[in-house]
Amino acid sequence: MKLGNLAPILDSQPITASAPCRVDFGGTLDIGSFHYPLRHQKPATVNLALDLRTEVRVQASSDRRIRIASAGFDDAVFDPGTAPYNHPLGLMFAVADYFGIEGAHIHIRSASPPRSGLGGSSVAAVALIRALSMVWEKMGGEEMSRERMALLAHAVEQGVAGVPCGLQDQLAAAFGGVNTWTWTADPEHLPFARQPLVTGQDLERLNRRLLVAYLGVTHVSTDVNGTWIRQFIGGKHRARWEEIVDLTRTFADAIQRLDMDAAVEAMNRETAIRKTMTPEVLDDLGDLLVTAAVQCGCGARFTGAGGGGCLWALGEPDSLAKLKPEWERLLDRRSSAGILDCRVDGEGVR
């Protein structure tokens, strides 16, 4: 599809779409470098969509150029098809070029901190794809499925990143909720199978057991992910990754039953394994937060590939009540750090 000049279509009515970010367990297994060799173990990733949504508004521009504005980045303006994809907003320009648009001003507003390890850039890509697919529908085209939006966002991101990328961020953004994503490693079918874990009133029960904090420093996922990929391809830590697969399955089962004891144990074990492989997944403050969580009987894990960004914790409500003031005290050491006000988002892109 080529949408062309959007100004006549959007002149009187801008289009807005939004999608949720996520916290995760068993991330990195969504990268093909891992789940194809490990396919006999049925590798999976669990993620929880959060209501820290990223909103994308597309409106008419005054000329044929594409303008993108996003908090935390300098505004960017390029002629169609000329933007460098290694630009901080390059992924969004690549999505715009996929749809062949002109004459558009794209505003991105995210409720999550920039580069916080919550999947923000992938979420923004899914939201932009949804917005532009809505333009396509206004032009008489068919509605794009959630599966296709996620797969398209991943394909474009992996193409411009130039390195293997996972798929879980796009799936959480597209579908929302709490899900296990099993990586099928079968090129003849969808690369994932979805199993919802928590629905209905149980979402509120899970919310009372969830805490998310921003460490006040940004992360670059390719740094740690690149290390893990190089290690795995080079034959290192294979047994540890097999254990992470098993722990992810244990965690998924525990979350479905809201068995916090089992979830906490799996969570802390997985965090410890990853820190053994890559100590840089947690900085000094992150280490203190994880230690506090364990001492309060909670589980704690970095989001995404760690190395800054966010941490999240699970535990029974009384344990979490003890942990929250401890985390707040520790986070006061950085002016930009703090507890994030968020809940599980049961709705995906809209």
Q: Considering DSSP H and I runs of 4 or more, what fraction of the residues is helical? A: 40-55%
Number of helices: 12
Estimated structural class: alpha+beta
- Sketch the topology as an H/E string, one letter per element: EHEHEEEHEEHHHEEHEHHHHEEHE
Question: How many β-strand stretches?
Answer: 13
* Low-confidence blocks of residues: none
Major sheet summary line:
7 strands, mixed
Strand content: 15-25%
Give the overall silhouette: globular
Mean pLDDT: 95
Distance between the termini: 21 Å
Q: Roughly how many Å is the radius of gyration?
A: 20 Å
List keywords for this structure.
350 residues, alpha+beta, 13 strands, single chain, seven-stranded mixed sheet
Q: What can you see in these coordinates?
A:
This protein is α+β, with helices and mostly antiparallel strands and 350 residues long. Helices cover 41% and strands 22% of the residues. Strands 2, 3, 4, 5, 7, 8 and 9 form a seven-stranded mixed beta sheet that branches. The longest helix is centred in the last third of the chain and has 20 residues, at 238-257.
What is this structure's SSE topology?
Elements: E1 4-5, H1 7-10, E2 15-25, H2 32-35, E3 44-60, E4 66-70, E5 76-78, H3 90-99, E6 101-102, E7 104-110, H4 120-138, H5 146-161, H6 168-175, E8 178-183, E9 192-198, H7 202-207, E10 210-214, H8 221-233, H9 238-257, H10 260-277, H11 284-295, E11 299-302, E12 310-314, H12 317-331, E13 338-339
